[in-house]
Amino acid sequence: MAWLELGKKMTEGKFICLYGGEDLEWISKFTTAALSVAKAGGFELEMVYVGKSNAKERMQKMINTFATRKFSYYWPNVTSIWFFWARLESMLYSKLQHGRTVENDEIMSEVMTVLSFDGSDQGWAIFCRGASEMARAKGDTALTSLLEFDKWKENIDKLGLVQALKDYLDQLHTPHHCNRLILPGSTGGIPQKVVCAECGRQMEKYFMYRCCVE
């Protein structure tokens, strides 16, 4: 996860949670549950809200809300949020230009996963520690896993926190899920193959035109 440029926060023993979306009710429940799990488990958790791409006006409203309600750490300006998503898109297109695929490039696969989470209508979260431990899920599944902490906490000593969470998230996945990946055409280069971040199946390819993205 060093590609997220949060390496300075990833000190040994500290767990990082990146999360996004616009559903304030989910954000409130999710951040409360995450901090409760961290307290119960006795580990240090750093939460960072990264917002949503292509939504400058809405993100300014979210920033104002975060300033008042103090859900977690957040970037205090729209430019930082934009830069985060622009960097991910730039990394994806760079990988494509070098002929990389999701099968042979783990970073490319993770970037596409985050971009597909951003394209959904719900929140999402990634938990990680260092550069090798990571668990991720869309909003409802991520929240459920935290609310059901008692069902998987016994595996932490054996597997570690992130892996224990990842295994439980895998149990919560249902056959019914849908992702979409929306890429701006201005950067150039469209992937020939995109796989679903949830089930790993190849997605069908469509053209999408959007208006009023604000």
CATH topology: Glutaredoxin
How would you write the strand order of the largest sheet?
Answer: 3-2-1-4-5
What is the count of distinct domains?
1
> What proportion of the residues is helical, as a percent range?
40-55%
Largest sheet features: 5 strands, mixed
Can you tell me the CATH class? Alpha Beta
Oligomer: single chain
Sketch the topology as an H/E string, one letter per element.
EHEHEHHEEHHH
Tell me what the structure shows.
With 214 residues, this protein is of the alpha/beta class. It has one domain (9-187): Glutaredoxin (3-Layer(aba) Sandwich), CATH 3.40.30. 42% of the residues lie in helices and 14% in strands. It is built from 7 helices and 5 strands; from the N terminus they run βαβαβααββααα. It has helices at residues 24-41, 56-69, 78-97, 106-118, 139-147, 156-159, 161-172; strands at 14-20, 44-51, 73-74, 124-129, 133-138. Strands 3-2-1-4-5 form a 5-stranded mixed sheet. The longest helix has 20 residues, at 78-97. The two termini are 29 Å apart.
